[in-house]
Amino acid sequence: MAGPVQSIERAAAILRLLAGGPRRLGLGEVASSLGLAKGTAHGILRTLQHVDFVEQDETTGKYQLGAALLHLGTSYLDVNELRSRSLNWADALAARSGEAVRLGTPLEGKVLVVHHVFRPDDTLQTLDVGALLPLHASSMGKVLLAFGTAAPETGPGGELEAYTRHTLVTREDLDRALAEIREQGWGAEVQEMSLGEAGIAAPIRGHGGLVVGAIALSGPPERICDPKGRPQPALIGLLREAARAISRDLGAARW
Amino acid sequence: MAERYVMSIDQGTTSTRCILFDRRGRLCAVAQREHQQYFPRPGWVEHDAVEIWRNVRRIVPEAMAHAGVDAGDIAAVGIANQRETTVLWDRRTGLPLGRAIVWQDTRTAPLVDALRDRPGDEFFLDRCGLPPSTYFSALRIRWLFDHVEGLEERARDGEVLFGTMESWLIYNLTGGTDGGLHITDPTNASRTMLVNLRTLTWDAELLAFFGVPRPLLPEIRSSAESYGEARALLPGVRITAALGDQQAALFGQTCFSPGEAKCTYGTGSFLLMNTGTDLVRSHNGLLTTVAYKIAGEPTVYALEGPMAVTGSLVQWFRDRLGLISTAPEIETLARTVEDNGGCYIVPAFSGLFAPHWRSDARGVVVGLTSYITKGHLARAVLEATAWQTREVVDAMNADCGLALRQLKVDGGMTSDNLLMQLLADVLDVPVVRPLVAETVSLGAAYAAGLAVDYWADLEVLRRNWHRAAQWLPAMDPRRREEEYESWQRAVERSLGWVRPPQPPG
């Protein structure tokens, strides 16, 4: 195994130094504090500046932590913000598809439902915002896995929990499904979480194209799928249109 | 047969939107444009009516282009508008005489104080159902007459026309100086303080009181009837509805039966309850207003409870205190704690509105201890909206003897799940959100479509309403009562903070 990378260690030391006090620091101060040559310190600072982890004051030339770094720990989209921005699009999707709509984000190895629009038929339905769904057996979870937003929770032997006889329980099957999702840009589950239920999901992208969540339609397989058991292209079209619209809205924001 | 659409134009406080709806009440195209807000002095808010008309001329073709349709595909146009905003224009040139004075403008406050003192609220309540307030247009007309040289005289000579935004837009859509219609509807007219609420006609006594000459005023038509054909923009398309925005939202939420209520949660919030054809006089601090008037049918009335500071309390928390960076984060912060920790915020920033109407109140934060965190404050911010709603609902129930069975909600704050749950908890009734969030535009479209038989009747519209979400009460009744009692004690502490000016010496 390779040893630590020296320049990354030095970059970390510079960031710690800049984070240590309220004051901006000049190049000389950074270099002498860490016992680095000025040229070395400058190269690292320039690189950190390039990725927005460090900012340089235009007038004094001194350095401070950059905005991107401040948001690194909170790069997750606030889930309530996500719901607020998705509201109109999710409603429109439910109205056009006639099916229930959910939005989800990853949370501790599960999918957290952050928004839920009822199937618009006025039957008794219960809001399940706050519910947790399995990653490998839900359409939203599979999309989040496919785009690297969440990692699968496997048992000690690498097996996945079976919810129905249709659940993908081996890594090979799941990996194949995830590759297909990445390829086609959407994912489905047909009776993999519970019998009599199917869903299709598409990724929601935030600033910089990062996948921050997923939006899904769900209903009985006979409505979500065609007679051959394939998700209906018309529904996929509506779903992806909504996902793109929400992503556009989110991408426009500064985080 | 090709699909036809109904168009709504929602002339709002910050922007104007044009939306096309299909027969199932689904939104098919939107175009929107903001207009400038002018703040020439503290408390003054103005709009440029010419800019607003120019925006309409842009967004109408835009919306049609989005949907790929032309004027021939539009069955009818309905208008919803920011209420009470006052524009005067020259009958001969068709141009505004100065900027429109917006409903939020408080320049008439001294006049309000004088009128509440003499002749007093009862004089006005008996006739128009409204107590003097800076909201209403008659006071603005009086102010303009008193401050613009020669205006009153020109108005008496019939050279000047008054309107709220729907009148201004209909006038321009139907030809302007070349035969443009000068009309309004009862929901808008009833917010001037110049209309007899029972007869829905301009009240001679109120006109005389404010010195408003009859030729200044538009003709009052129904909220839903064929006014005439558009000449500009949409040649040949019939204009068939006009409703004030809050009444349009009530209509869009299909609150057609007595006892049905909606609340629109925005910067401020407005709860309206349909009281049927009964004109209910409030004894509990609510406004009596017209809900809608469909041509050939009896007038339907409503009780209204305006809450001045709801969403704007969240904005204050974000912009002035800086404790959150976006409005939806209030929910995230509020969920970091289990309850309010004993802390209550009464946002009487410019006095308390319905049902208290106390201009001497100012905001308070009570129950502070060293235990209180920003999470508790965030929770108290959301609870303030819930409890204000509870007070208005209690007043409505007392006034009309009907107990609210569910509350239909719309507006931006409905995306806040915690607030919606709090509402269900403190009101002890289900809170339901409809699938179409654009209830103001939808209401104007519904009224317009009804007038041309695009939709057959109210029942068809009811069937278009679908529940998108529902929150059920889950609070322990004893805790609800304790919390309400604490809220009421907090409200008491906000009262009487502003003292009348002391005489010198």
Automatic annotation (TrEMBL), chain A:
GO biological process: glycerol metabolic process; negative regulation of DNA-templated transcription
Ranges in coiled-coil conformation: none
GO terms assigned for molecular function: DNA binding; DNA-binding transcription factor activity
SMART domains: HTH_ICLR (SM00346)
Domain HTH iclR-type, residue spans: 5-67
IclR-ED domain ranges (all copies): 68-252
Annotated PANTHER family: HELIX-TURN-HELIX TRANSCRIPTIONAL REGULATOR, ICLR FAMILY, HTH-TYPE TRANSCRIPTIONAL REPRESSOR ALLR
Job description of the protein: May be an activator protein for the gylABX operon.
Name recorded for this polypeptide: Glycerol operon regulatory protein
Phylogenetic lineage: Bacteria, Bacillati, Actinomycetota, Actinomycetes, Kitasatosporales
